[in-house]
Amino acid sequence: MKKILVLNGPNLNLLGVREKSIYGDQDFLSYFEELKKRFTTIQLEYFQSNSEGILIDKIHEVGFEYDGIVMNAGAYTHTSIAIGDAIAAVRTPVIEVHISNVHQREEFRHHSFLAKNCQGVICGFGLDSYRLGIEALLV
Ligand code: DQA
User: Fold this and answer.
1) 69-118: per-residue pLDDT in tens?
2) Is the Cβ atom of 72 under 6 angstroms away from ligand 1?
3) Boundaries of every domain in the chain
4) Ligand 1 test: best mutation among 98, 110, 128, most atoms within 8 Å of CB?
């Protein structure tokens, strides 16, 4: 059975509460339950941290064993050379996802330090970006 980790970065624990006009009103844990019901033939796991180092530790932990990581690194996407390097260091392919279309937003959200080392990037489809990320790993 394929193993895929959905990995969320800072402030994504507040989905459903935070800036609903941008990120919607569903909390991530209830969305993750929907994902698990949809993808019954894979082992889906979820991890969230607000700390850069903990996210890097998690990438190292699963990055030689899992079949894929769907990662929304939140604002670290635009700041973290270290997370970009962690993605480059492991074998597991990573799909970068964003709920919002970061290219329609502030200039500082247009650049990603992760994208170059990811298999691909999906953004702008709301929470459905995560489903599309998983689909991409299953192709
Ligand atoms: C985000 C976009 C980032 O720019 C922002 O910092 C987030 C969420 C998204 O999912 O749209 O925290 O990654």
Assistant:
1) 999 999 999 999 999 999 999 999 999 999 999 999 999 999 999 999 99
2) yes
3) 2-138
4) 98
pTM summary value:
0.98
Pocket test for ligand 1, best of 48, 99, 112, 125 (most atoms within 8 A of CB): 99
100 Cβ closer than 6 Å to some ligand 1 atom: yes
CATH class for the region spanning 2-138: alpha beta
Sheet holding 68-72, edge to edge: 42-48, 2-8, 68-72, 94-98, 120-123
Partners of 95 in the β-ladder: 70, 120
CA-based max dimension of the chain: 40
